[in-house]
Specification:
- Pfam families: IF-2B (PF01008).
- Catalyzes the interconversion of methylthioribose-1-phosphate (MTR-1-P) into methylthioribulose-1-phosphate (MTRu-1-P).
- Its EC number is 5.3.1.23.
- By secondary structure, the protein is α/β, with parallel strands linked by helices.
- The strands form 5 sheets. The protein has a 7-stranded mixed sheet with strand order 8-7-6-9-12-17-18. It has a 4-stranded mixed sheet with strand order 13-10-11-16, with helices on one face.
- The two termini are about 30 Å apart.
- The chain contains 9 helices and 18 strands.
- Helix 1 runs antiparallel to helix 2 (about 65-80).
- The structure holds 5-S-methyl-1-O-phosphono-5-thio-D-ribulose (MRU).
- 5-S-methyl-1-O-phosphono-5-thio-D-ribulose binds near residues 110, 190 and 362.
Length: about 400
């Protein structure tokens, strides 16, 4: 856990959960998120293979956090002696090139991972192919520094986004009819467990809380992986932020019966026209938000913006194994043991028969026309009334 911090409003926040940590010797450890919220177990991740496995199995998840781990695993690989086998910079490029491709293939939708790998590729590309020990050593050091920066840069920008998003939403809804605090909804988990610290959408919620501008943060359970009920719940209760969990099926009812001020989500990929891929369930929240006149705000770092794609139709949406939707992880009330239990009949999700199918996309795409604003560390891009797109390039 990170140290306590005192807010501008004088509040002292308890230490936040963190997804990963790096010790003085460079050893990387992650919290096994499959065991949360019941058990906090740190596991070492020393190689690109271990990082791939941790990302693929979602022991670590969240767009910025997986980018950080992948980059840090390249740094660990180079620090572990692998660099001694290189004779020329071309050897470094050939070896790391395939490792970066491999790491990038672990999860396809979150562009932060691809962007982090591209950042390292750009360094490899700009290096002269010829040279000896001195050139190899300089290149290896450059890669290691850039890999660490992927992780380190994430924390500071999250605080900036949190502040910008909270200020914008407060301007829209604060003070109206004497309102002292906002009621907001979030989907998935976007806090310190999904990033290198503070979070994106949860960063905005935390900043509202720090400024005494939050009434309640409602969060959806976010099935089938339960990022909301397992992880967001843990983060918000740890920070003692007023929060209320809802089932995914209750979003409409909540907006119908409460004066909700905003839906705030993170993102895995925001494309040039503002269409945004995020955790499954985000799109339905956006449709309901429009129906109820509630601002729908996307919060993500510039590394989540992919200007190479024009519309959301081009985003590759990851399909998770069908069987994941038929299981839940939890704590046995009698024994206290952690277990995975099946909630559907045998065969559902694992048989080829037409009656055993499961639809399990990990993400959905919210069209820009349903998004009120995109917040990055560079600013807030607001959709003009009636517009079908958002100028995300203006905040990159
Ligand atoms: O499948 P996950 O848990 O990796 O999905 C995470 C999300 O969709 C988050 O909302 C997104 O990555 C933003 S995290 C700051």
């Amino acid at each position: 856990m990170a140290a306590t911090s005192t807010t501008p409003g004088g509040k002292t926040l308890p230490p936040m959960m963190t997804s990963l940590r790096v010790d003085g010797s460079g050893q990387v450890e992650i919290v096994d998120q499959l065991l949360l919220p019941h058990t906090v177990k740190w596991i070492p991740v020393s190689t690109p293979e271990e990082a791939f496995d941790a990302i693929k199995t979602m022991r670590i998840r969240g767009a910025p956090a997986i980018a950080s781990l992948a980059a840090l695993s390249v740094r660990s690989y180079l620090s572990s002696g692998a660099a001694s086998k290189f004779s020329t910079p071309a050897d470094v490029s050939a070896d790391l090139g395939s490792i970066l491709d491999y790491l990038e293939s672990s999860r396809p939708t979150a562009v932060n991972l691809a962007e982090a790998m591209n950042r390292l590729r750009r360094i490899l590309k700009s290096a002269p192919a010829a040279g000896g020990a001195a050139e190899v050593s300089a290149l290896v050091e450059k890669i290691k520094t850039a890999a660490f920066a992927v992780h380190e840069e994430d924390q500071e920008r999250n605080r900036t986004m949190g502040r910008l998003g909270a200020e914008w939403l407060w301007q829209q809804r604060g003070g109206k009819d004497g309102k002292k605090g906002l009621k907001v909804i979030t989907v998935c988990n976007t806090g310190s467990l999904a990033t290198s610290g503070y979070g994106t959408a949860i960063g905005v919620i935390t900043a509202l809380f720090e400024a005494d501008h939050l009434d309640t943060a409602y969060y959806a359970q976010t099935t089938p992986y339960h990022q909301g009920s397992r992880l967001t719940s843990l983060e918000l209760t740890t920070l003692k932020i007023p929060a209320c969990m809802i089932c995914d099926t209750m979003l409409g009812s909540l907006m119908q019966h409460n004066d909700i001020d905003g839906v705030i989500i993170g993102a895995d990929r925001i494309v040039a026209n503002g269409d945004t891929a995020n955790k499954i369930g985000s799109y339905q929240a956006a449709v309901l938000a429009q129906r109820h006149n509630v601002p729908f705000v996307v919060v993500a770092p510039v590394t989540t913006v992919d200007l190479s794609l024009e519309t959301g139709a081009q985003i590759h949406i990851e399909q998770r194994p069908a069987v994941e939707a038929t299981l839940v992880r939890g704590k046995n009330l009698e024994t206290g043991d952690l277990s995975v239990v099946r909630i559907s009949p045998e065969g559902v999700g694992s048989g080829p028969e037409p009656w055993n199918q499961v639809y399990n996309p990990s993400f959905d795409v919210t069209p820009a026309e349903l998004i009120s604003a995109v917040v990055t560390e560079k600013g807030v891009a607001v959709r003009a009334p009636g517009a079908k797109s958002i100028d995300v390039a203006s905040v990159c």
